[in-house]
Write the structure tokens for this entry.
Amino acid sequence: MDLGLTGKRALVTAASRGLGRASALALAAEGASVAVAGRNPDAMQGLVAELRAAGAAEAIAVRMDLARGETLAPAVDEVAARLGGLDIFVGNTGGPASGPFLDFPRAAWQQSLDETLLAMVDLCHAVLPHMRSRRWGRIIFVTTVGVKVVQPNMVLSDSLRLAIVGLAKSLSIEFAHEGILVNCLCPGPFATDRMKDLVSATEARDGRGRAAAETVWLEEVPVGHFGRPEDFGAMVAMLASERSGFTTGVAIALDGGKSRAY
């Protein structure tokens, strides 16, 4: 199936590993030009080469620190200048720390707020003018299955990413008439470095062995295994494509059935 992504220009944030990396590779495989953003673009040159090998029309890496809002708009403008425009924005962030509510003072909330919700607000302010000028765009926020079903010890992630879902729904109404579609993907447990870190935290917090800690994360997942990042990337490519022209304002769970959502 031709997704119609050849010639489209995409920005993927927090793209150096995990679901961000998988998203970038999936878009590249469909012939899009892809910019990957992270704190250390030099460290992403290997990924840039992979994107080109996968089929990207062009691939670049740009410096972007999601905690420094004043730097985000210039970085987006750099991407648009180097790629000749910007059609697709995949808003991914690093995962906030895990732990019980009382472990996190106000400063921890502020840091996570800056790096998640407010970073997405700043980036949308920057990307939307490029999309509006062409009356076409796709914004895909990477959130969490925790916006649909509460996860123990994930209070920062679940709270702040639920706010991103609210942002997405508001933007979807405001910009649909300009051909800009806005959706969220809500991943459950995927086989990523982030998941390894969460399993390690569970192991340390609960005094469990590794296998038992993994079971904590999988016991409510009907398919019985961690998701593959490439499966997540495939859904990103679909939502970014011409084939998703009637889909906006939704939060789609990719969670192996964990949320029992409908």
Summary: The longest helix spans residues 155-175.
